[in-house]
Amino acid sequence: MSLSLLLEQILNGLQLGVMLFLMSAGLTLVFGVMGLINLAHGSLYMIGAFAAAAVAGATGSFLLGLGAALAAAAVAGVLVETLVIRRLYARDHLDQVLATFALILIFSEGTRWLFGSFPLYLDIPAPLKGPVTFPGGFAYPGYRLAIITIGLAVALALFWLIARTRVGVRIRAGQADREMVAALGVNIARLYTMVFALGAALAGLAGALVGALQSVQVGMGEPVLILAFVIIVIGGIGSIRGAFVASILVGLTDTLGRFLLPLAFGMVMEPSAANIVGTALASMAIYILMAAVLVVRPTGLFGAAT
Amino acid sequence: MIRERHLNALVLGALLALPLWGFWAEAPFMITLATRAAILALAAVGLNLALGLGGLVSLGHAAFFGVGGYAAGILALHAQSFTPMMTWPITIQGTTSMPLIWLVAVVASALAALGIGALSLRTSGVYFIMITLAFGQMLYYFAVALPAYGGEDGVSIYVRNAFPGLNTLRPLPFFAICYVLLGLALLLSWRISVSPFGLALSAARQSEARVRTVGIEPYRLRLVAFVISGAITGLAGALFADLNRFVSPAMLSWHLSGEFIVLVVLGGVGRLLGPVVGAGLFVFLEHWLGGVSDHWMIFLGAALLLVVLFARGGLIGGLTAGSRS
Questions:
Q1: % of chain A beyond a pLDDT of 70
Q2: Is residue A263 in a domain?
Q3: Which residue of B has its CA nearest to A86?
Q4: Rounded to an integer, what distance in angstroms lies between the CA atom of residue A89 and that of residue A78?
Q5: I need a surface site. Which of A204, B92, B141, B265 has the fewest CB within 10 A?
């Protein structure tokens, strides 16, 4: 096993991690601030990817596609929040699960209606198509490197927004005591819509960026949604910092597990069996990680102890 | 308005009358639909025990359904190919006998529920929902990564498994088996709900603090309920495998877990026959709307959304207009 192969896998894990952070950041904010479990977050990811693929396909510009993804996901977020989600804040979790599950059915089937069952493809923008060669001869795909950069930049911006701006103060205050915030004259309804739209836009961005690596198809948001849930369980509900640490942890565990576990089993058993056992175990690795965190800290790494 | 007891009798009667009519009218398709409804209802009866009585919103019950299905698929596969399941430390052969398969399915899904429940029940609320979902997904990926049992393609059961004294290849006897098992599960579910255990479980749902105060540990109650619930859903999975003569990772998909919750809620959460009404309605909608449009899921989604937002209490709640007993 060469060092550059390992380095490549670590970067792949990092890339998966920052993508998952874009997904889980919005989800954990909505959990933390509004106390809502939103299964339809994966649909917003899918909407972002479809908007990007459709607009980039029609105009030939990846950047326009990216803008369309952000806009489409944010608009969908505002619509969903004002029409449906708003009525669910006071309801129990069962109602929230059901209503957002219904939204998934509507979004998935609606997308299939509009775009058909065949996947769309989003081209990687030309300047980022080739690999970037580092000093020392190590080469890594430019587009994936760009995703890592964008993801980290968005994470920094989000930390800044939450910690340093007036909006961030309100979001944190809304998390701590929503009645008091409302009593102090903050328009809670508008704050909620804004938080939801922000989360939706981040999910749409993630969908558009990943859309150029995979095919854009109905249901693409659901595996990512479940990973985002695992991340929130590991990181602790409502914690952006926890979501970031857990995203990177899950991204690396998943990618390196798939790479290293078959190799590790190969040392003690024959290659074909090692491959089967290693692959099966690797596909379960992040859930085992989640179970381990649960045993040690049921409220997650950065969650408030109850 | 009708009494819930009379409505219950009506529902069970209707579920029995439909396939009999299908048999008389030589429409075996009707019998298959009713069988599908009975099996989904059985799975939802299992879930209703955790969800309705225990207040545990499990979004991972398809895992137990799938474990039961795979138990049936794997045992049948080995029996059909005359290969032992394992040879070490003891030799275990496959089987095509339904009672034996049910036993294995119930034990396997109960064990899965014990493991998942022991970890998930350490938490509550949204954590519990997400964790049951995540563990369900873990088993899904595990099934996909099983090349010996078809991986993503699953396992085919070439000939439906056998029940002593009945010809299960014909639709009506197989329906009868599913209907009787559904009836037994409903009986068990009712016995549990009126037993001291069920009352304590229900009390823990309504006020955890009070139950703790009288010295009962809610964790244990919930774990036992979760295991029974998983085992019933696992039995339904084994029957579903025999109905379709096919098992695949799709049986473990989280969409199915969501649909089970939908079945329970459409009928009415915590009502004895809620799952049966929900499953009947679901199969009817699937069949009827599916015939109207390929995109029937949109209408199902919209209907579900309206029910959740504006018509709580489900169908039984609406028809009896009574508060939940």
A1: 99
A2: no
A3: B309
A4: 15
A5: B92
- Does A136 map to a domain? yes
How far apart are alpha carbons B79 and B214 in whole angstroms? 52
Q: Look at residue B281 and tell me if it is in a domain.
A: yes
Q: Answer positive or negative: Cα dihedral of A147, A149, A150, A155.
A: positive
Q: Is residue B168 part of a domain?
A: yes
* B residues 267..286 contacting A (CB < 8 A): 269
Using the structure block, give the residue that is written with the tokens 């790494």: A301
pLDDT of residue A280: 85
Say whether B57 sits in a helix, a strand or coil.
coil
d(CA B314, CA B325): 14
Tokens of A228: 């985002």
Look at residues A43, A9, A83 and name the one whose alpha carbon lies nearest to residue A200: A43
For helices A240-266 and A221-235, give the axis angle rounded to 10 degrees.
Answer: 110
pLDDT band at residue A306 using 50, 70 and 90 as cut-offs? very low
Q: What are φ and ψ of residue A220, in 5° steps?
A: -65, -25
Q: B125 in contact with A at a CB cutoff of 8 Å?
A: yes
Structure tokens given for B211: 């139950």
pLDDT surpassing 90 at residue A154: yes
**Structural domains of chain A, count:** 1
For residue B240, CA distances in Å to A110, B2, B166 come to 29, 33, 18
Distance CA A43, CA A51 (A): 12
| List of chain B residues with pLDDT < 70 | 1, 88, 312-315, 318, 321-325
CB contact under 8 Å between B141 and A295, yes or no, is: no
A110 closest CA partner among B254, B299, B304, B255: B299
Q: What percent of chain A has pLDDT over 90?
A: 53
Is residue A129 situated within a structural domain? yes
State the CB neighbour count (10 A cutoff) for residue A210: 24
Are B254 and A112 in contact (CB < 8 Å)? no
User: Which chain B residues have a beta carbon less than 8 Å from that of A295?
Assistant: 119, 122
Provide the residue range defining the domain that includes A56: 8-218
Q: How far is A131 from chain B (nearest CA, A)?
A: 32
Q: What is the extent of the structural domain holding B62?
A: 4-320
- Kindly identify which residue of chain B lies nearest to residue A292, measuring between CA atoms: B119
Q: Are A108 and A219 in contact (CB under 8 A)?
A: yes
Strands (E), chain B: 155-156, 246-247
